[in-house]
């Protein structure tokens, strides 16, 4: 379990090291931020001196078609019946992901009777953080959320490893592990 637990941390560290060297997404810069020059710089950095003008023209056309489109907030999206199938799919995916974490709760020496409730708590926490993230992503940008998320997730994985190693020494250590696992799920859902 310790190798499986450390693998996402290694991948997060690799992404964290290389993320600053990549530009923002050109569609994000043009369509969300309205930064035409930044979009052209990002396209030039991604494609070099190749012909990226056709892609830029496509983005400009997409921007023109979206000009009259109203951007909805989270509550407006939740009230829109046309997105209910997609919302149900995402909810089922989030809830089914919680079944993957049952083994770590057993490893943390939690009582079998409270593990389903803990798993439900993690699912609700992830759902709330996904909704929160969707409302702040436009203001902060993807890079900030990814970079900050991976830094915090790496720290939390180190804390989880320490608390799982010390759980036989202190009776309260499994609860620390539980809190760190829930925080990890929340940070993962809000960032990466």
TrEMBL record:
One biological process term in Gene Ontology: D-glucose import
Gene3D superfamilies for this protein:
MFS general substrate transporter like domains (1.20.1250.20)
Q: Which GO terms describe its molecular function?
A: D-glucose transmembrane transporter activity
Protein name (database record): Solute carrier family 2, facilitated glucose transporter member 9
InterPro entries (UniProt xref): GLUT, MFS_dom, MFS_sugar_transport-like, MFS_trans_sf
TM region(s), chain numbering = 6-23, 87-108, 114-137, 144-166, 172-191
Q: Which GO terms describe its cellular component?
A: plasma membrane
Instruction: Give a yes or no for keyword Iron in this entry.
Output: no
Write the record's keywords in alphabetical order, separated by commas: Membrane, Sugar transport, Transmembrane, Transmembrane helix, Transport
